[in-house]
Design goal:
97 residues, alpha+beta, SH3 type barrels, six-stranded antiparallel sheet, 6 strands
Length: 97
């Protein structure tokens, strides 16, 4: 049964901020895509640090293969744990040689 109750909007992002978020996401996606299969260090805007290899990038996420057992709650594939990171949560990406 479908309810006739109208949802009450409690928050909506401002249009200029939405556009900025899209630009940031698209820039991060392009940089990550160009660096697939590269070993990187990533810091999120919340201060989390991750080190691993970029294995995939899609519209909203970077997929990082990490070889650390500290990510045991993540999905295990091909010799490492794959963790998804949301593109607009990224603060820095550094290449590790």
């Amino acid at each position: 049964m479908i309810s006739n109750v109208q949802p009450q909007l409690i928050w909506q992002n401002e249009p200029h901020k939405v556009q900025l978020l899209r630009q940031m996401r698209d820039e991060a996606k392009a940089i990550c895509y160009r660096n697939i299969n590269r070993h990187v260090s990533i810091q999120t805007i919340d201060g989390e640090l991750h080190e691993g290899t970029i294995v995939k990038v899609d519209r909203d996420h970077l997929y990082l293969r990490v070889h650390s057992n500290q990510h045991r709650t993540r999905q295990y594939f091909d010799g490492g744990f794959i963790i998804p990171l949301v593109l607009f949560n990224l603060l820095t990406i550094s290449l590790l040689y």
